[in-house]
Amino acid sequence: MSADLVTGAINRGLAARIAARVGGGALRIFLIVVALLWLLPTFGLLVESFRDPAQYANGNWWQAIVHPAQLTAGNYSALLHNSTMVSSFFNTIKITVPATILVVLIGSAAGYAFAWMEFPGRDALFLLVVGLLVIPIQIALIPVVKLYSFIGISGTILSVICFHVGFGLPFAVFLLRNYFAGIPRDLMEAARMDGASEARIFFRVILPLGMPAIASLGIFQFLWVWNDLLVALVFSNANSQPITVALASQTRQFGSSIDILAPGAFLSLIVPLVVFLSFQRYFVQGVMAGSVK
Known about the structure:
By secondary structure, the protein is mostly helical. It has two domains: 3-72; 79-289, MetI-like fold, CATH 1.10.3720.10. It is 78% helix and 0% strand.
């Protein structure tokens, strides 16, 4: 090998290392900037939630950073003394937690059945479940309202939960079936040869190995239900409305409720934000699980 070739290889290797380091640093800077821009509205809402309502007309939220005297905890005190907002927050919890748990449990069992159990019409039924993914929620609103009125649960928390469970299950079954199907067949055959029942295989093999997809599904479902407004507007009433509906109703009385809108909106935002930041790694795994096989 000639000296020119050796020198060229060294130069190319050095240039590649420099480009990789510069590219990696630029990528990190870009991601940091994107993250800061993504969190900026949240930070602005946090500052606004502590700002004295009398100061709203004197400038935007960043004025409170320059003049900290504008900040007060009175807004959260007013929020906690507002019975509508407090009850709606607890209604949101009562709706979101059962709707998430039921979708995860039923979706896990159905996903296992479609992936590893043999029964007549399995593939056709799975295609039907996948087809339900493309049905818009708006199409089902009026028929389901009539059904709920007929059985006497219209306007209750149960009606909102049932609707979210019904429309959350197709995606849950699709996601978990694809993930469970990727589990090695040898594990399933070994468990069956050892005499394990289907229930034992499901709880001892499938659930532990499928926890990334199950956790991802739980996070998706939690965020969808917590932030829902349309379904809650249609199916809830004044006693069962979640915080999204309560905030929407407060905007109609903006002049008299300006002191609770910002803290109420931040309270509604912080719970799903904490959930997302705590379990964000599962989102990528869940999306990848649903994109294979």
